[in-house]
Structures are given as C-alpha cells and as structure tokens.
Amino acid sequence: MKLRELLQNVDIINVLQGCDYTPSLSASGGLPLEGGGQGWGDIDVSGVAYDSREAKEGYLFVAIEGERYDGHDFIKDAVKKGAVAIVHEKEISPRSLVNSQESGVKRQETRGTNQETHDLSFIEVRDSRKALACIAHNFYGMPSEGLILIGITGTNGKTTAAYILKSILESWGKEIGLIGTIQYMIKDRAYPAPYTTPESLEFHGLLKDMLSSGCTHVISEVSSHALAQHRVDRAVFKAAVFTNLTRDHLDFHKTMEDYFRAKERLFRELLDEDGTCVINLDDPYGKRLISSLTTGVPKKSQDLLTYGFEAGADVVASDIDSSFGGLRFKILFRGRSYDVSSLLVGLPNVYNIMSAAGVSISLGVPWQIILEGIEKTCGVTGRFEKVDLGQNFLCIIDYAHTENALERLIYTARELKIRNSKFEIRNSKSRIITVFGCGGDRDRGKRPRMGAVATRLSDFVIITSDNPRSEEPSEIIREIESGAVKRNYLIEPDRREAIRKAVDIAGGSDIILIAGKGHEDYQEIKGVRNRFNDRDIFEEAIRDRIE
User: For the chain, how big is the Rg over CA atoms in Å?
Assistant: First the structure.
C-alpha cells in the first residue's frame, strides 16, 4: 500500500523527507501537495508496527506513548530494522538519524528491475494514537464498514452481556465475532485475549479477519482504557451499550469525571449516525449519558433504547424469580409482555439480559429468537460460576474486583441463600464466606472500600492476594484491612491457602464466594505470571475434603 493511502485522514502537522520539512496543506492537517520533487507519498509500505520489535523492512512505524514505555525512544531501533516511514507526535531529531552511519536510513531497494534510493520519511502528527487507529483502519481496508459492529461499555456486566447477545444472534443464524475480556472468537475459533480491547492495530486487524472469515456481526467489549487511548477510533459502531459506571481504574483516569468522559466517547464520537444507544436507565451515570445525548436533540424512534426497573424505561423487567437454578421474569416492551427463562443467576444478570435484548430489538431480531437465545446462554466462565463436586455447601467463583461488583455479588448470594432449599440454606447457621484481595499497581482508593463491603455483608471474610504485581501483598492487605467494619475476618496472603481454608471451615449450607480473578488462569507476582486458576484450586480443596 502507498504511504499516502495509509495516511488518508491522519491529522498531519509536518513531513520530513531526509532533513527538509514540508508544511501540511492546512491548519487541520493533511497530506502535502504532490509534486515539487517530494515523492514521499509514493513509497510502498508493506506493514505497520507500533512496537519496534515488530518492525520489518518496508514498514511504517508509529511511535506511541504507553504506560511504561514511549515508542519515541525506540524509533532508531525501527529504522535499523528497515522502517521506511516514522509517525511521531513528539519533537525528535531526524537529522541525527539520517546522518547516523548505523541507522541505515538510506538503503538500496530493488523494485522489479529498478534500483532506487529512498529517504526515510518522518511524519509529525498531532496525536500518534489517533493516527495509529486511522492508519490501521486504512491498512486493513476499513473492515468495520462491512460488519454490524456492537460495542458494550461499562464497569460491570460487559462480558456476560456480550455472551448473551452472541447466543441471541447465533440463534438468529448469524456468524459472530467476539472481542472481550475472556477471549477473542472468530465464529467457533477462540484465541487468547491479552486485553479486553486490543490496541487499534490489532483491533482493526481482528475486524478484518472476522470479515474475511464470514462474520456478519461483531460484539466487542470496549474498555475505558481503549476509549481514552483511541484504540477503537475509526471503527463504525452500529449499536452501543452502557451497562453502568462505578468506581474503578482511577489509577488511570484519576477522577470519575474522566472515567465517565472516556465511556461517553463511544456514544458521542464513534456510534454511526444511524446507530442505536442502549443505556441502563437505573444507573445514575446512565441517566446523565441519556441527558447529554438528548438535550436539545429531538428523540428519534430507534436511536435510543433504555432498560431498567424504573418507570419510563423502554425495556422493563418485572416479576423476577431468582434461584440457584436460574432466572424467570417478564420483559415488558411497548405494551407487550415476554416470559424470560435463563440459566444465569441473580439480579445483575437481569440487567445483562435486558441490555442484550435492547440491542437485539434495535437490530430487528424477532422476539421468539431473542427469548430462545437468552435461554440457550450457559454460565460465563468466572461470572457467578458454580463449582459443584457433590459437596454439601455451595462454591461460587466471580470476577468481582470493584466495590460495587463485590457488593452485588454478596447481595446476590444472600438473596439466593434465603430462598434456596437444595442446600437447606434457610438454616440460620448458614454463612456467606468471602475470599478476596485487590490487585497491585491499580486504584488504591478502592481497597478499604472493598474491605468495608466484604466485612459488612459477609458472615466471614478471608483477605488474601489477587494479582499483587510489583507491590508487596502485605501492604495491599493492610489497606484492605483498614476499611473493615467488623472483626469477622482472617488474613491469609497465600491465595491457594486462603481458598483451602475457606473450604475447610465451610459447613453444610454455607456459600463460599471466591472473588476478584474469575476466568484468569495466572497470578502476577513481581512481574512474573505464575499459573494459577481459582477453580482448579477450589476443586482440589473440595476433593481433598470429601474423599
């Protein structure tokens, strides 16, 4: 692909070929005029990289600033590997690179039978991350425009809502791509997911692979990090879901206002003009988002769907019957009532089901198919996941790693505890035993809050490690403990031992909640990811007890 094709719609400030800057066409950026002996836009580019280790001969290298490393510090490495063009936002010294004997900036290239010498091009842009997203969109042939792309954002519920929607659309006969926290999926093929939402180059590349594989619809969890860092920019979303917003990621966003503004981008900037917003009306930030999207703008019939329990929502849930066996309730939509049956458990999943139903309505899925897809949805790995090996107490694994998510998890267990009969939970001596920790190098402010929630709502708590990362587990635990409101807890820094202790002390009809890691199969300590899976440890401890 020609360099000028890759850079279409990129906000360019200046271009340097060799050592002579060429000004951009306009204040808003754009490619310099052709001619004048420039010729730099005609360079053939064979690939794109933002990690210098991935750069190869003929590549365009985009220098972006990460949380730990800055790509501008690795431009020279990319040049050595054969990059023909560099996109950057920070001031650099191209002359030193061009004149460096070891840089290999001027090199002989064979194109057919012609030998030509090309100068390395430096393209200065206003924002490298925005530029990378635009370049990726162009490089992969604008794949989102050939797909029905659905984005789901919010603090909690994204993963489960995505899987419910996937089940509904598959019941409708569609081929589905999925980008999310647990895994990436292209139809029935699953791939590891390093991030909930990958960097823009990988994101658009995934969309291209999905389109090429015959996917018609793609469901993507869209994290606040991804929105703040422009990872999904230039993608065209046909529907966008807002689940809720509670405290999380303030180590990155700093304030709840910044956190909300990041989420808002999906609806204000990235949603197709004919797309649909599906928003939780019961959530305070959901209300705020609705207000900001509709103030001064006449509401169209299909551009906004709300859901919740509050009067005035478009999709409303009522008559909820929740048990360990699943959910039964009614969905009311435009004067009609639909009976919902689901294997999923607890009130949070009523919200997740409503959000998936809202998207399905916007896409024209028949109600019979919506209800069938909901009923087919099995439990999602690490989301209120039951572990049953025949023991006389209940074990649940959940990803809850925020104050709000942990509170909802314990409330859900307490609600089920009152109503369930299989484990004789009505026994007043039955307890909720919660095992949890907090991640290192993340928002420290939520640690005492989670300690308060756990000790207030649980009968007994074991405070342990999550992913301590570079921090000392004992310091993280001390901060959790500072929020405890009761002395109904013990401390066990070793997560394996903490799980085993919970199993050892559980009596008949107790409920053990293992919170924080969910689907994760590792524990990160001092930069090393060690194999660790809560379910495996849980099952091992249960077998040792019942054998």
Answer: 26
The model carries a pTM of 0.89
**Do residues 344 and 415 both lie within one domain?**
no
Angstrom distances, CA of residue 101 to CA of 55, 105, 505: 19, 8, 69
pLDDT for 474: 97
Rounded to whole angstroms, the Cα distance separating 176 from 164 reads: 12
Integer Cα distance of 435 and 451 in angstroms: 11
CATH of the domain at 466: 3.90.190.20
Distances (CA, A) of 129 to 71, 180, 233, 264, 535: 11, 21, 9, 18, 38
Range of the domain at 483: 385-546
> Does 484 share its domain with 421?
yes
Residues 92 and 153 in one domain: no
Q: Which of 333, 379, 378, 328 is nearest to 357 (CA)?
A: 333
pLDDT in tens, 156-179: 999 999 999 999 999 999 999 999
- Alpha-carbon gap, residue 15 to 17, rounded angstroms: 7
Same domain, 437 and 519: yes
Rounded distance between C-alpha atoms, residue 96 and residue 118, angstroms: 17
Q: How many CA atoms lie within 13 A of 303 on its CB side?
A: 13
Cβ-based neighbours of 368, under 8 Å, separated by 6 or more: none
Tokens of 495: 């997560």
Nearest to 85 by CA among 62, 107, 66, 69: 62
Tens of pLDDT, residues 393-447: 999 999 999 999 999 999 999 987 766 544 444 455 789 999 999 999 998 999 9
Structural domains of the chain, count: 3
The answer to whether residues 308 and 436 belong to one domain is no
Same domain, 273 and 358: yes
Burial of 378 (0-12, 13-18, 19+ CB in 10 A): exposed
Rounded to whole angstroms, what are the CA distances from 90 to 121, 264, 483? Answer: 15, 27, 43
CA within 13 Å, CB half, 261: 9
CA 176 vs CA 167, 203, 294, 304: distances in Å:
9, 15, 31, 24
Whole-number Å distance between alpha carbons of 180 and 165: 13
What residues pair up with 337 in beta bridges, in sequence order? 332
User: Distance between CA atoms of 311 and 415, rounded to whole angstroms?
Assistant: 24
- In 10 A of CB 258, how many CB atoms? 14
